[in-house]
Structures are given as C-alpha cells and as structure tokens.
TrEMBL record:
Nucleotide-binding as UniProt keyword: no
Stretches assigned to coiled coil: none
Protein's name according to its UniProt entry: Nucleoside recognition domain-containing protein
Signal peptide: none
C-alpha cells in the first residue's frame, strides 16, 4: 500500500507544483515539459534500459546458473552453516529450515535472485511450522527476515549491468564499496535482533566470523586510507574486476570438475536474462514516468534543495544529498529505488560522485517493506513485532556507511 501512495503522490505533487508555476509564476510551458517528459521516460525505460539490460543479464545469469550447478551454493551452505546455527537457537539442527535458510542466503550472496526467493519462501514456511503463535512472528522468523532485508550480496550484478548500459568507464568500480556497505548493514541487523532476543554473540563461532571479516575489512580500509584518492579508486577498480573474474573462473572450473554440460547450462540460465528484462519493464516504465513528472515539475529540485539546506546548517559537505532520494525509496520499493538510481546516473553521469553513491545505496540494503509483505504474508503472519523497526534501523546504518564509503572512495 505504501508504494501505491508514493506512486500517486509523484503525479499529484508534480501537478500541484506545475499549477502553482502556471498561475503565480506565469510558466506557460511547464505542463508541456511534464507531458513530453512522460513519453520520453517511457521510451527510455524500454529502449535505453530494459532491452540493453537483457544482453548483460543473459550473460551473467548464464554464468550464475553454471555456478549453481557447480555446487557453489552448497559449498557456501556448508561454510556458513555453523554460524547460522548460533543465530537461530530455537530451530533444531536437523530441521529442514536450516538448509533452506542457508540456501536462500547463499543464493542471495551470489546474486541468484530467482533461486533465492523460492528457498526463502520455503524457509519461512518451515519456520512457521515451529511457530507456536501462527499470527505472530517468531524470533527465528524475525532474525531470518531482518537478515534478508540487509541484502547481503557478494556480486551486485544488476547494479553493474545498469552502470555498463549507461556508459560507465568501469562498471565494477562500485564492487568493493557495495560489498562493505552491505556487510555493515548485515552486521547491524544481526546486532540489533540479537540484542532484542538476548542472544549471546560472544562465542567462538560468531566472534570468529564477524570479528575475522570485520578485522580484514578494517585493515583493508586502513591500508587504502594511506593512499592518494586517485590510487584508492584505481585499487577498487582492479580488486573488483579481479574478484569478479575470479568468481567466474571458479564457477567454470567447478563445473568442469563436476562434469557439468557447461554450455547447455549457460544457455538454460541465460534464457532468464531476457525474461528478467521483460518482467521489469512495467515496473521501470511506471516508476520512471512518475519520477520524470516529479523531476520535470521541479519537485525533485525542491526536495534535494531542502535536504541540502538542512544538512548545510550543520556545516557539513552536502554533495551527498542529490543521492538521498534513492536511500529514502530503497526500504519501500526496489523498482522505485532502481528507477531513481538510473535517473540520477542519467542526470549526473554514472562516473560522477552522485552516480556512484546512488549505486552504493542501492547495493547496501534491500526493500524492507516489500520483503516483510512477501515473506510474512506468505505464511499469514499479521503481527510483525519489531521486525520492521529493526530492518529500518539497519537500512539507516547502511545509508550512513554508504555516504562514508562514497566520500572515501570517490570524492
């Protein structure tokens, strides 16, 4: 429902502002600008974004299908299994929910959204079987959902694809900042829910995982902080590309080892690229047209200007405020945030500070309200308890981390 109101509000606010400009400012061209923008935005959504996206998505989804058949998800499941047992003490070790949750998170980490959602829905159903109060979310269900909303992803595939389409010099230069941002959101998610549920995170397994990864990232950032800004950006590009190509090669070698019919598997997965692009066309058209009307009326300038004024009162640098609409939209709508991200990259350029920062925001968290509606709705849960609040706090932490990372890497 929230998305319905937001989408309608885009048009109503645009109309009210245009009417004000016409009556009080004598701007007779404003309605023509908005209407022409509606047609232009609809064309851009299909011709400049969705269709070019099909080729990029087909290639990478084909490769990811090879990785899945090569056992990448099962390998991740075995590695992170002991850690997840500590976060879900109410779930018996031999219960099917454990494997389904691990498969869901593993698929998400690899960017396999199509595979992740069925695993996630099945995991929520299995957790519901253990839930004594069927109308109210259990502790395990809340931990699972809030971790899901943190959007932990190793490969920000769709973001890099959009950057490539819009002409970024190096589409993967946001790889490392996105990875760190989504990790921060995930750690905050775990900490918040664990504190409320009074889980003991100070045990060898949890400390080993969180402490080890945090220490590695802290050392990496400490090293990078000693380099000139230009060199930091160069290191991010090189490491991001090396990691991405290494994952691809690992998938192929794993498939060879398992004697997978590699090319047929690639074709099978690649078919989903076109299907994915076609599926998002209505969402892209709807959101880009609404955002176009909102921006062409001048409402986006007023919003960003207001945010700049408020943050400017503190004396801080306000360059990041042009990217905040993406951060504000992300918890509500993935398609809306994606459309705002694309709109910002088209307006400021994909290699600008704002163009990169919106990508970090997009990659640092997931759509909290949509995920709550989808997963809790699938099992009939009506009382979400503190799930939404915990998810939004984690989202806020991701925004703060995104801003810091944007300035560190690209400003």
């Amino acid at each position: 429902m929230a998305l319905n109101y937001i989408w309608v509000a885009f048009f109503i606010v645009a109309f009210v502002i245009a009417l004000f400009k016409l009556i009080f400012l004598g701007d007779t061209a404003i309605f023509q600008v908005i209407v022409e923008g509606l047609f232009d935005s609809a064309k851009v959504a299909i011709m400049d974004i969705a269709l070019p996206l099909a080729g990029v998505m087909a290639f990478f989804l084909g490769l990811l299908n090879i990785g899945e058949k090569a056992g990448a998800i099962n390998l991740l499941a075995r590695i992170i299994g002991p850690f997840f047992h500590k976060l879900f003490p109410e779930v018996p070790r031999n219960h099917p929910a454990n494997g389904e949750m691990i498969m869901n998170f593993s698929a998400n980490m690899l960017g396999l959204d199509n595979a992740a959602t069925p695993f996630g829905l099945r995991a929520m159903q299995s957790l519901q079987e253990l839930n004594p109060d069927k109308d109210t979310a259990s502790n395990a269900q809340i931990m699972f959902l809030v971790l899901h909303t943190s959007g932990l992803t190793i490969i920000p595939l769709s973001i890099m694809a959009q950057r490539a389409i819009l002409g970024a010099k190096d589409p993967s230069d946001i790889f490392i900042p996105c990875l760190i941002g989504t990790y921060v959101t995930t750690v905050v998610s775990v900490a918040i829910v664990a504190a409320i549920q009074r889980l003991n995170l100070f045990n060898r397994v949890v400390i080993g995982w969180l402490g080890g990864i945090t220490a590695f990232l802290a050392l990496a950032l400490w090293y990078l902080s000693s380099l000139p800004k230009e060199q930091i950006e160069e290191v991010s590009k090189v490491v991001g590309n090396v990691l991405l190509l290494s994952i691809i090669v690992a998938f192929l070698l794993g498939a060879l080892r398992r004697k997978v019919d590699i090319f047929s598997t690639f074709i099978e997965g690649a078919k989903g690229g076109f299907e994915t692009s076609v599926r998002i066309i209505p969402y892209l058209v709807g959101m880009l047209v609404a955002i176009g009307a909102f921006r062409n009326a001048g409402a986006m300038d007023y919003l960003v200007g207001g945010l700049k004024y408020l943050f400017g009162l503190t004396g801080m640098n306000t360059d990041f405020t042009d990217a905040l609409p993406v951060a504000l939209m992300k918890p509500l709508s993935g398609s809306g945030a994606r459309a705002l991200m694309i709109d910002a990259m088209k307006q400021f350029g994909p290699d600008s500070f704002v163009g990169r920062l919106v990508c970090i925001f997009q990659g640092s968290a997931d759509t909290t309200f949509y995920i709550v509606a989808l997963y809790f709705g699938s099992v009939g849960i009506k009382k979400t308890r503190y799930a939404i609040l915990a998810g939004l706090i984690a989202d806020f932490a991701g925004v703060l981390a995104g801003i810091a990372l944007g300035y560190f890497f690209f400003h």
